[in-house]
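Example record for the data management plan.
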Amino acid sequence: MNAAKFVKNFLLTANEEKNVTFSIADVSGAMSVVEQTIRVMAEAGNEDAQLASTCLESIWLDIWAAYERGGKSREMHRSNVSLSIQDRMALRTAERLLDQGPEQYPRQRRDDIRSMIDELPSLLNDITLPQGLKEYIARLAREVRIALDEYDLTGDFKLDIAFARLQTSLNVAATVSKDAESQGKLVGFLKTKVCPCLAAGALALGAVADGATVLDYLGVHSQIASSQQASNTSHEQSANDTSQEQ
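Corresponding structural encoding:
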């Protein structure tokens, strides 16, 4: 299910009884994907996207109205709004346009991600990081697992958001780690477990800039850290030898 279909399914529950719970965070996240995709395609000259883009604001208002009428609850079963014909057509157009792209998370990629998060607790227990950062990474991993479990309902958009956040947190953890052994284990995990989960050519850089990939950066960074550690050890040994000679 793509993001536009998810939004449409939610807004069309006004007069339907469905045993489905929609969170306002998921609906808003899906609508953000719809808006970004439609605006990019409209700017590229796609006439269908240009027509659909004229309804984006009113669809956002529909979502906000549903949130207010639902008592501003984070989870809703019904939208309680009447979707206009124009907004309905715009969402159907967006659904069709989003379906034209390749599937972001085919079965094999989802299996790779699930395998990666299954092994993450063992890694966190085996490395030195601030406890708060470990807990944050573990929470993001749980969000990814939920997105995987609910993939048939929420589709690519929720998994994409959750996985990107987890990936970025692991990148940051590897760059900020002060322990060379822990950093090496993090880099190894990124190479062997996270990389197979990435779409072709995709690698979120987090805080790393200058166009270098995270793994290239971390490889160099690890070498520098090791060299500095060896250099410091050498200087300390030389100082001790000099002191003993005196």
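Summary line stored alongside the record: Residues 119-232 form one domain.
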